[in-house]
Design brief:
There is one protein chain. By secondary structure, the chain is mostly helical. It contains 7 helices and 3 strands. The chain has helices spanning 2-22, 46-66, 75-101, 105-120, 125-132, 137-158, 162-175; strands at residues 27-32, 41-45, 177-180. A 3-stranded antiparallel β-sheet has the order 2-1-3. A hairpin with an 8-residue loop joins β1 (27-32) and β2 (41-45). It starts with a helix and ends with a strand.
């Protein structure tokens, strides 16, 4: 009886581990922002990176189709999309931490609501999102609209242009502790 219980527990454990890897519920990157930026820790999960990369690849495929190009999405393009998606998520965390530290969350929420309302007033916006990015409204808000609004609010409040924001992000990356678990 004891061997059967052990075997059953082992099967449950193996099943759980298999599910975790199949669903990509494992950490890919750990970001700890600099103490001056709040010193908060964030985990970027593998499925989050893949969701952003898949959206970018869908956009790229659609652009190629619309241009009547014979180019194809290759493994190197997919790898590049994965890396850029990971870097974008890291940058989004740094910007989000700065927005929270400066207590600009309400302004960001208002800007996101305003932009989403504008987009939703356009006919077939949800269909266009699905076709162009492969996202629904909530995915668009989470992955595109909110991060862009946070960057816009931060630039406005700090009086920065795009180059100053990019320089600040690079400094924050250097000051933060970023650990990658995957390549």
């Amino acid at each position: 009886m004891r061997n059967a219980a052990t075997a059953f527990a082992f099967l449950i454990f193996v099943g759980a581990v298999t599910l975790i890897f199949a669903m990509q519920w494992y950490p890919a990157i750990l970001v700890r922002t600099a103490d001056a930026s709040g010193g908060s820790a964030h985990i970027i999960w593998e499925y989050q990176i893949n969701k952003v990369a898949d959206s970018a690849i869908t956009y790229y495929k659609n652009a190629l189709e619309n241009a009547s190009s014979s180019l194809q999405v290759t493994a190197s393009i997919k790898k590049d999309a994965y890396e850029k998606s990971a870097n974008t998520l890291i940058e989004n965390i740094l910007v989000q931490s700065a927005v929270r530290l400066a207590e600009l969350t309400k302004e960001t929420d208002a800007l996101v609501a305003e932009k989403i309302a504008e987009y939703n007033n356009q006919p077939n916006f949800g269909v266009a999102l699905s076709l162009v990015y492969g996202l629904d409204n909530s995915g668009f808000t989470e992955l595109i609209a909110r991060p862009e609004a946070e960057r816009e609010i931060l630039k406005t409040k700090k009086g920065w242009d795009d180059a100053a924001l990019a320089a600040w992000i690079e400094e924050e990356k250097k000051a933060s502790r970023i650990v990658r678990f995957t390549k």
